[in-house]
Amino acid sequence: MELLDILYTPLDTKDVPVVDSNDILAWLAENQNQAVRLRRDSSQVASPSLYPWNISYAKTLGVWKTDFKERFPELADYFSSAFGVEENDIKDIVFLPTKNEFEGTGFWHSDPDELGLRIYLENDDFEKDFLLMRPTIKKYNSREQVGYIPENGIDPKRFKEETYVAKLLKPRQAFFINNIRAIHAAKISKIGKKRIAIIVILKKNSISEIPPQVKSLIENSYEKYKDLAIARSD
């Protein structure tokens, strides 16, 4: 199985630290209106009615924002130790709590980071269809090749019609999502569901320079969780 043909898998990491999600949400609310240099997320370009998150950064360009590390030291350590990297290897840490008023399926997209390291700190929808995925038709080798993605996820020349549903072992879980050979959309079952996703972006972020321990983690996790993982069928 080629790494890029793994579209999604839970990751076999140590357990996500138990942190009071209300404390985290309070910090995120306090730090939501941030000045972020070289911003690459879709919060300022996606249709507001289809953008399901209140986005905040805990770390940007290798620098912790305000007092995050001091307030949540165990979680700050987890971002690196879970994936077998050093703290200085991480460029950005992005929190994506869902909007309380959002319900339904958000816009289809592919995240800008190629390695796709993710964590759910909370997910009230983990036993439902919380994340939808569609494979690309061509087997791309970089995020740049994916190009523009319509918000409805429909482009018969570039994306397959088949839709996969991601599964988790538990509501607090690290996972891998493929941003090169698949697109995805978050699905929130009803208003008020608590979900806090986290994006961990390494300084060396291309598939071509993936750290060997991260590559092994993804591949070994796929083998362990084949019943839950998603891979290309072609």
Classify the secondary structure makeup into a structural class. Answer: alpha+beta
- Which strand-content bin applies to the residues? 15-25%
Question: Which percent range fits the helix content?
Answer: 10-25%
SS summary, helix count: 4
Q: Unreliable segments (pLDDT under 50, ≥5 consecutive)?
A: none
Query: What shape does the CA trace take?
Result: globular
Strand order of the largest sheet: 3-2-4-11-6-9-1-12
**Between the first and last Cα atoms, what is the distance in angstroms?**
11 Å
CATH topology: Jelly Rolls
CA-atom Rg in angstroms:
17 Å
Instruction: Report the mean per-residue pLDDT as an integer.
Output: 94
Q: Architecture in CATH? A: Sandwich
- Total strands: the figure is 12
Task: Tell me the major beta sheet.
Answer: 8 strands, antiparallel
H/E topology pattern = EHEEHHEEEEEEEEHE
Helix and strand arrangement:
Layout: E1 6-10, H1 21-30, E2 56-60, E3 63-64, H2 68-71, H3 73-81, E4 90-97, E5 104-105, E6 117-123, E7 131-135, E8 164-165, E9 173-177, E10 182-188, E11 195-202, H4 212-224, E12 230-231
Antiparallel strand pairs: 1-9, 1-12, 2-3, 2-4, 4-11, 5-10, 6-9, 6-11, 7-8, 7-10
Features of the shown structure:
single chain; 234 residues; alpha+beta; Jelly Rolls; eight-stranded antiparallel β-sheet; four-stranded antiparallel β-sheet; 12 strands
